Amino acid sequence: MRAVIQLVSEAGVTVGNRTCGSINTGLLVLLGISKNDTEKDVVSIADKIAHLRIFPDEDGLMNRSVMDVGGEVLVVSQFTLFGDCRKGRRPSYSKAAPPDTAKRLYLHFIKALTDSGITCASGEFQAMMKISLVNDGPVTIMIDSEKTF
User: Nearest Cα to 80, choosing from 44, 43, 30?
Assistant: First the structure.
């Protein structure tokens, strides 16, 4: 499982002319799910993100989590995070989970965050989406369940 996490002052996702989800202060999480991911990976990454200390404290130091600041999370499924560009010029997505598995784990991820008390919004699985955000800082963090980075 891979996540690109951006600290935002606002973010939203639309499909066509319809807004699917939007948040104010919080995190935009682009979530890629591999064919080897399990519920254990979901719980681990959701917990890591919920407690990730990247929000500034009163001294301007990154010491607060999204839970500490009462922030929200916008989760957007993004299988292209598993695009492998090492060979040729067209990415291979062979490591990405098949849609049925990815959707199940994506929804489980959102539930894990919600169960921890975080307000979540989401994109629409397998839809062409437009994402808007105001990146705050900017702060962008990447997490990988296999700890490759």
Answer: 30
For domain 2-144, is the CATH number 3.50.80.10? yes
What is the mean pLDDT of the segment spanning 90-97? 96
Give domain limits for the chain. Answer: 2-144
Residue with the bigger pLDDT between 147 and 51: it is 51
Catalytic residue among 38, 80, 126, 140: 80
Per-residue pLDDT for 149 more than 90? no
**Does 80 qualify as catalytic in the annotation?**
yes
Q: What pLDDT score was predicted for residue 26? A: 98
Catalytic annotation, pick one of 19, 25, 55, 78: 78
